[in-house]
Structures are given as structure tokens and as C-alpha cells.
Amino acid sequence: MSLVLYRNAHLATPIDPGRPLAGPDQGRILHQPAGALLCRAGTIAAVGEEAAVLRELQGAIPERTVDCGGRCLVPGFVDPHTHMCFAERREAEFGLRLEGLPYLEILRRGGGILASVQAVRPASEATLLENTRRHARSALRFGTTSLEVKSGYGLDLDTELKMLRVIERLSKDCPLDVVATFLGAHAIPPEYREIPDRYVDLVVDSMLPAVAAQGIARYCDVFCETGVFTLEQSRRILKAAARHGLGVKIHADEVNDLGGAGLAAELRAASAEHLLAAADSHLQRMAAAGVIAVLLPATAYSLRKDYARARRMIELGVPVALATDCNPGSSYCESMPFVFGLAVLQMGLSVAEALTAATLNAAYAIGLGDRVGSLEPGKQADFLVLDGKTPTILAYHAGVSPVIEVIKRGETVFWTPPPDTLTVPPEARKENRTWN
Fold first, then answer.
1. Which of 159, 185, 321, 327: CA 20 to 30 A from 49?
2. What pLDDT sits at residue 331?
3. How many Cβ atoms are within 10 Å of 94's Cβ, its own excluded?
4. Which of 259, 185, 195 is nearest to 223 (CA)?
5. What percent of the residues of the chain are helix, what percent strand, and what percent coil, each to the nearest 5?
6. What is the rounded distance in angstroms from the CA atom of residue 190 to the CA atom of residue 345?
């Protein structure tokens, strides 16, 4: 049974009470400036003050010992909202937005999500897998160790099932934990533009039974927004998803306050996502129902919109998580450190609140909170070594990634030379031990 010891580290982690952290609890993280972490067979065996961890060895000699030089260890990032399974980028559309064309107008003209649909429908599974692997590989280098990937660029049964197969293959082909979400209700496809309720019928009567039978998707999501799916259409789809045993999520109130956040509370969804326009009354209902707010600051940055009111959500007791929203149109970003920095500098979160949002709360948003998201005995040994003394480095050192080592289930899966000395045995950097 392999033993790996990380010592001389500053540990920073939320503590898992068996639920997402909200309100004042979101900002309460454990700091251990003279800490150590012991991995045994891919699991955290001991973590805390170094002398106590060394006693846990009981005379055993670790296969590897890493002197972190006082650097910070944090849980691996969990990215709970991505659309990284796509065929082509949309750079031209980005240029149109820079010129002032609103996103919903681009969508109305057949761009946006529909442009990605046109590219994904004819794409082979091999092409989609290679593109998705490239984005997942990039995310890993920025410290992401678990993530969610949505379908939603098919908008027909065969292509949606194809996307979900690709997402499943990704989960077997890379060291990340990957959670699949079915998003057949991402937009109204062109062939149903004049009869949107018929498309809702298709999602409910044909797609959801087939997705459930396929057994890959863990959640169902819907884009509840002006010009996309109405509140009642969204309710119908998500209730049907729940009947088929899928967890429910909702793209809610990104542009207009349609009451999507309130619907998330009504259905006790795992999460409501975006929420730039959500009203306090609906956020209060989310807090009472324990619905996690998954906020996407890189999307607001890319669209040049006001950021979601993260500070207000925490005041109201809503558990807040962070995600990249990695997609080819409104947020072409795989970097959780960038998202972390935006959350602190533009959304008013403290460093501690942002760390919880990017780890434990994000893990609970995709059903992985019992396994990842905090540094505690019994959880997977998924953690990062940062080139800084505290997690503040994630917001402070802008424009770069301070992640110098990514450990997944106790194995080094990414390593980059730090500016000064970090003792990492050469065998930890062999090509066959890194997913570069």
C-alpha cells in the first residue's frame, strides 16, 4: 500500500460538515501553517499539524516525501459547470459582441448555441473526444481535479446521446472525476423555432427516457431564459427528469429575472447557475431550500456584464460555488485560478469564501462532496501545491497560474518547475505519471 508524505506545508481547507457551507460558515476555513498530508493508496490517511501526521506513520517509511518549502496545499479545484464538449470555437461571434451585438440577438440570428449545434451534429465521436480531452487537460494544469461536462450542442436525440458517450469516454480516459449532465434543453433548435412546445414534448417524451436508459448523465439541466425556455417549460422538463431519477439543475436568470431561481428552490435543485439577474426573494427561497448558487464570473467578464451578487447571496445564506462555464462562445476559459481572482476582486468574496466556493461547495453542486473538495482523512487525495504561502496567491498573482503540482488520488498528474526549489523526486515527473 503506497505511502506519500507532503510535509512543511501551509494547509488551507474548508471542513466538510456533510453539506455545502453557507453564510458565515462559507468563510471559515482551516489554516495549518506547519502542516503535512499523508496519502495512502490514493486516499488522505492523515492531515494536520506535521508532528501529529508523522506519528500516524508508526515507523513506516513513505515511498515518497515531498518538502513543500512552506508552500500552500489546498484541495483540488472542482469545476461544476462546463460545456467543454464542442467541435469548433466561435471567435467571430466574440468579435460581434465586442462591437456591441447582444448575445440573445446573436442567438436569434442562428449564432451562439445554435452555431455550436451545427458543428457538433456532424462531428465524429473521435473528434469531439479529442477536443474535450484538450480542454480537460488544460483545466487540469490550472488545478481542476473534478469537473462537470454538459451535453446540449446536439438538440436532437442521437447527437445528445453521442455527446454523453464522449463525456463518459473522457471520464475513463483521464485522471479527472467527470460528472455528465444532460442539457437537451439548451436552446430551441431551428427546426422547432415556430413550435417550441413540440420540442419540449420531444425532450420529455423521447430524450429523457433514452438518456435515463443510457445511464451516463447524473443530472438534467435547462436554460430558463427569455427567448429560450419559459418558466413553465423548464418546470415540465425538470419534473420529468426527476421522475426518471436524474438530479436537476437550472441555468437561471442570467439575463432577465424570470423566476428561475425560485423554480430551483421549488424543485430543490442541486444548483441554480448564472443568477446575474436573480431577485432577493428568489435567492431567499434558494437559501431555505439549500440550493447551491453556481456563479460564473468568467462569463460576466467575457460578456462585459455586471457580476452576480455573490456578496448578497452569502448574506442571505445561499451556499455559493464557482465554475468556469468553459464553452466556445460566452466563456472560453478553463482556468479556475482566473475565476477565483475574479470572485475576490470583482464579486466581493473573501479569499476563504472563494476557496470554499471553488472546492467543497462546488463538489456538492455535482454530487461529489462526500469524496472531494476538502483535505480530510478518508477523502480522495486530490490537492494542489501552490507557489505561495497562502491561498491568497490565487487572487494576488494575476494573469498566471500559481499551481505547480496537481495530485489526483495521491498521484502527481501535473508538475511544473517552480521559481525556486521544490523537492520532488524525479520519478514523480516521469511522462507516464503525468497527464500532460
1. 321
2. 95
3. 16
4. 185
5. 40, 25, 40
6. 40
Residue 164 in 3-state DSSP?
helix
Residue 207 DSSP class: I
The Cα 133–Cα 147 span in angstroms is: 12
Split at pLDDT 50, 70, 90, the class of 430 is very low
38 strand-pairing partners? 5, 46
In 3-state terms, what secondary structure has residue 185?
A: strand
Note whether 395 and 356 are within 8 A (CB): no
Contact status, residue 85 vs residue 151, Cβ threshold 8 Å: yes
Exposed, middle or buried by CB within 10 Å (0-12, 13-18, 19+), for 178?
A: buried
Three cell numbers written together for 395: 487572487
Query: Distance between CA 37 and CA 52 in Å, rounded?
Result: 10
User: What is each CA distance from 30 to 12, 40, 63, 75, 101, in whole angstroms?
Assistant: 6, 22, 27, 12, 45
For residue 140, count other CB atoms closer than 10 A to its CB.
25
| Contact partners, residue 223, CB within 8 Å, separation at least 6 | 152, 183, 185, 186, 187, 229, 251
Locate 364 and state its grid cell.
456538492
- Per DSSP, the chain holds a count of helices (H) and strands (E) of 17, 16
Cα 186 off chain centre by? 18
- Residue identified by cell 436524474 is 246
What count of other Cβ atoms lies within 10 Å of the Cβ of residue 59? 4
Query: Taking the CA of residue 187 as centre, how many other CA atoms within 13 Å lie in the half-sphere pointing to its CB?
Result: 22
DSSP 1-60: --EEEEEEEEEEEE---SS---GGGGG-EEEEEEEEEEEETTEEEEEEEHHHHHHHHTT-
The pLDDT tens digits for 322-379 are 999 999 999 999 999 999 999 999 999 999 999 999 999 999 999 999 999 999 999 9
Contact criterion met (CB below 8 Å) for 373 and 363: yes
Average confidence score pLDDT of the chain:
94
